[in-house]
Amino acid sequence: MGTGIGARVKRKEDRRFITGKGKYTDDIRMENQAYAAFVRSPHAHAKVTGIDKSAALAMEGVIDVLDGHQLTGDGIGNLICGWAISSRDGSPMNMGAWSALATEKVRYVGDAVAVVIAESQALARQAAEMVEVSYEELPAAVFADKALQPGAPQVHDNAPGNLIFDWVIGEEEATEAALAGSAHVVDIDLTNNRLSPNPMEPRAAVATYDEAEDHYTLYTTSQNPHVARLVLSAFYQVAPEHKLRVIAPDVGGGFGSKIYIYPEEITCLWASMRTQRSVKWTGDRSEAFMTDAHGRDHISNVKLGFDADHRITGLKIETIANLGAYMSLFSSVTPTYLHATLYSGQYVIPHIFGNVKAVYTNTVPVDAYRGAGRPEACYMIERAMEVAARQLGVDPAELRRKNFINEFPYQTPVILTYDAGDFGGNLDKAMKAADVAGFAARKAEAAARGKLRGMGYSCYIEACGIAPSAAVGSLGSGVGLWESAEVRVNPVGTIEILTGSHSHGQGHETTFAQIVSDRFGVPMENVSIVHGDTDKVQFGMGTYGSRSGAVGMSAIVKAMDKIEAKVKKIAAHQLEASEDDIVIEGGEVKVKGTDRKLAWHEIGLAAYTAHNLPPDMEPGLKEGAFYDPSNFTFPAGCYIAEVEVDPDTGVTEIIQFTAADDFGTIINPMIVEGQVHGGVAQGIGQALLEQVVYDEDGQLITGSYMDYAMPRADDVPFYTIEHNTTVCPSNPLGIKGCGEAGAIGAPPAVINAITDAIGTDALSMPATPQKVWMALQSTASLQAAE
Amino acid sequence: MTQVTLTVNGKSVSRDVPDTMLLSEFLREELRLTGTHVGCDTSQCGACVVHLDGRAVKSCTALAVAHSGSAVTTIEGLASGKTLHPMQEAFNEHHGLQCGFCTTGMIMTGVDMVNRYKAAGKALTPEAIRKELEGNICRCTGYHNIVKAIEDAATRMDGMAQAAE
Fold first, then answer.
1. What average pLDDT does the segment A77-93 reach?
2. What CATH class has A298-466+631-785?
């Protein structure tokens, strides 16, 4: 098998991981390394009235105990939110201050108030227990809807009523009128359960200050080391960019939670300067639950109108989004522009109106988690469509098909312009692969065994390839969302690709090499991918929002265009031919229609010896490019879940899960399918198992894997994956992106299947056996009463 | 401090360590065998699985001093020189890993599982593999390709056993 675009190439990076030679942040040990342990608030909301460090400082091996007053006193700035959102009245969002170490007040359980630096990790943790912090407890606002009620405890003084913003999108009056004139309106309340991302590698940081050079180096678990450096430098004032190197080595999963620059990384850098030691912090799983940004946590009402012919007339969604105690880096855009711009789903909806109220609570900050706003949108639309089909008494697949967008480009009422897709084709492929025709027989067979079998659809669409910089700038983004790449052809013809994308499981070392191998005909093993180090790669925006293919690879293609142009000039000069007649094929540079040619490595050597280059040509063969997308990309697909519910126990088994995705061009189907598997498993986790729980006082109940149910191998099935490709017209490779689709599309498919099985729509995520059983009892009692 | 002597990946090692030191910490910090990962505090995730006297154990739940005299195999000791163990080959072949963090524990659990089923003369079905993976969490792969990899490795390990005979 070849190694070009579309080939199932085995991953180049695997060898180090399967032999235990991966290099993660916690595997790094510096000379003169000390260890950090954080003193964290046990209260959800309290005033800090004093910190007594004396007992900790007296312990042998404790180097220092540092607090927030020292941190701010040294000029370390507050954490920022990178996207400005305005309320419907034009007022800016109400952002409260967030210091890496709290000074006056703590606002969630786990909020850091001090850090101990000691000679060992065990000692640092023991000493952290010896730091006596005096608190004056305050009542806590824990749940988003209650936090908005009059008299609720105030999380930040400058956000009255805990309201961060009251944001709208679309046309309110026209949508109300459309709903009022509808033959039928589905009206449902939905919650999107709060999740913890849980990459298997906990966050970690190793910070080193070099006094002689006045320079900092930070190894950290980041999806975007350049963004980390930018923010640490420009906003937190740790050091100017040229005095700060950020390295994200092997990173053990991210799913969004490693986009953000957290208090711990900032504190370790600052502490390394204060103590003149390398400072290492490795979070444990409890700290991950307590401090990694959570995801989702929406409470919504959905109204979806239909005319007498079952065509959609309008959609109105009102949502309360819980942003936690502080505004994390992308917390404001996640429930707004990454969310409500997808309200049109795959359907022609003439009028749409959305209102999102973002709320402070005394809980961990909430930000983007795999899918980031789009799972929440998809869940509402696809639940509403399924409920509509049941209420209208029509087939859910046919109701969707009747309302599909079939002509492109399609301008939705909520900003986005879909450029390409084949929604009917996705549905057809999924229905065939899921054997929908045979479902009735399978349901009857299950019934004979005393099981309730159900089938549920989800036709998702998302916006990836984030994003055109001017567009996001006009919507409030503080950064541009281009990507950069550099292609270095060495004198011996081997190639190094430097990319601003970051791989933390996505397999870039393989797929990025594939597009180079495909283009120049050089073997895969002669291509290496360099990423994750701000000293090596000039700049980059990192990996999130399924952007590494659509944006990151496009930057590589742009740089390869420049390399190809120079290679052709050199070859034309040396082979005495016209540039237009030069072709690059199979690792050779040839004059079309002749036997004159140069091997690829001969071009590399010629470029660097510079003995015989065209006049005025610079030596060397290295080109860089920045690629700024011209549109979002629109991955879409159809998922079908088939489940069996045991009516005696409420236990749901997923019998079959079928995905038919349109991701545009696929570079490596093996890797793309792996992304779908993982995304779908996270979606199944949300639908069946996962839920972050706080009690009424704001204590985190789900603080370990004993209490937070992660999907395990026997919770999920083998997945059936189909591809239905329409090429993305807005980028050179035609890629749409595949990283988040599974997590976006799976939850409504699973819940639609369970509610189909049990005969009631009164079921919320996660659909635990207890909830399913309770829902079944209510239907049983209703049936008994009839 | 107590002296701990272990045979790790075939080599005898001896260190004076605190009684509270976990086996995972001993391997990672004393021996710098960082392929054994720690992903949770509660013995749930399985990233730290090693073989202790031939049995799979979670090294984050074992005290180093309690196992002095034992033989430990870590992920670094699984391959024979440059030749990968069939389980390692199968994980690559079936794309059974993404970020790689849980992978080392998955592979060690997988080898142990296959050995136990073979010793008991039981068939290692996909359903059995899924049940056996109860103690190993992966957040990336959705388990599909891990189950395929272990299933395939069981066959490959048959070949290995026959070749050894």
1. 97
2. alpha beta
Kindly provide the b/e burial profile for residues A200-234, where b requires at least 16 CB atoms within 10 angstroms of the residue's own CB.
Answer: bbbbbbbbbbeeeeeebbbbbbbbbbbbbbbbbbe
Nearest to A298 by CA among A381, A187, A413, A379: A379
Q: Rounded to a whole number, what is the distance in Å from the CA of A592 to chain B's nearest CA?
A: 39
At residue A784, the 3 state secondary structure works out as helix
Q: Give the residue among B148, B143, B139 at the shortest CA–CA distance from A682.
A: B139
| pLDDT of amino acid A531 | 97
Chains A–B, number of C-beta pairs less than 8 Å apart: 178
Structural domain boundaries of chain A?
A: 14-138+201-252+258-291, 298-466+631-785, 482-627
CATH homologous superfamily for A14-138+201-252+258-291? Aldehyde oxidase/xanthine dehydrogenase, a/b hammerhead (3.90.1170.50)
Q: Can you give the pTM of this predicted structure?
A: 0.97
Q: Mind telling me how many Å the CA of A263 is from chain B's nearest CA?
A: 21
For residue A607, the surrounding DSSP H or E stretch is: helix A600-609
Strands A495-499 and A652-662: unpaired
Phi, psi angle pair for A638, to nearest 5°: -130, 125
A66 strand-pairing partners: A115
Mutation site for B-interface testing, chosen from A17, A504, A667 by largest number of B Cβ within 10 Å:
A17
State the span(s) of chain B assigned CATH 1.10.150.120: 86-164
Instruction: Tell me the mean pLDDT in the region A339-345.
Output: 98
CA A759 to chain centre: 34
Q: What is the pLDDT of residues B118-149, one digit of tens each?
A: 999 999 999 999 999 999 999 999 999 999 99
A482-627 has the same fold as A14-138+201-252+258-291: no
CA distance A172 to chain B (A): 40
Residue A2 pLDDT: 86
CATH class label, B2-77 = alpha beta
- The Cβ of residue A43 has, within 10 Å, a number of other Cβ atoms equal to 23
CB contact under 8 A, A681 and B142: yes
List, in sequence order, every beta strand (DSSP E) within A691-731: 719-723
Residues of B in contact with A17 (CB under 8 A): 97, 100, 103-104
> What is the per-residue pLDDT across A625-675, written as a single tens digit (0 to 9) for each?
999 999 999 999 999 999 999 999 999 999 999 999 999 999 999 999 999
Residue bearing tokens 């399978």: A442
Among A29, A30, A200, pick the best mutation site for testing chain B contact (most B Cβ within 10 A): A200
Asked if A14's CB is within 8 angstroms of B92's CB, the reply is: yes
- A678 and B141 within 8 Å at the Cβ level: the answer is yes
Q: Residue A550 phi/psi, 5° resolution?
A: -65, -35
| Minimal Cβ distance to B97: which of A18, A26, A284 | A18
Residues of A in contact with B141 (CB under 8 A): 674, 677-678, 681
Per-residue pLDDT band at A784 (split at 50, 70, 90): low
How much is the pLDDT for A222? 98
The CATH class of the B86-164 domain is mainly alpha
**Structure ipTM:** 0.98
Q: How far apart are CA A82 and CA A478, in angstroms?
A: 5
CA triple A760-A763-A769, angle to 5 deg: 105
Percentage of residues of chain B with pLDDT beyond 70: 97
- The per-residue pLDDT for A781 is 63
Which are the contacts of A738, defined by CB distance < 8 A and separation ≥ 6?
A: A546, A549, A635, A661, A663, A666, A672, A675, A676
Q: What is the CATH class of A482-627?
A: alpha beta
* pLDDT given at position B159: 75
pLDDT in tens, A31-52: 999 999 999 999 999 999 999 9
A382 contacts chain B (CB < 8 A) = no
Average pLDDT score over chain A: 97
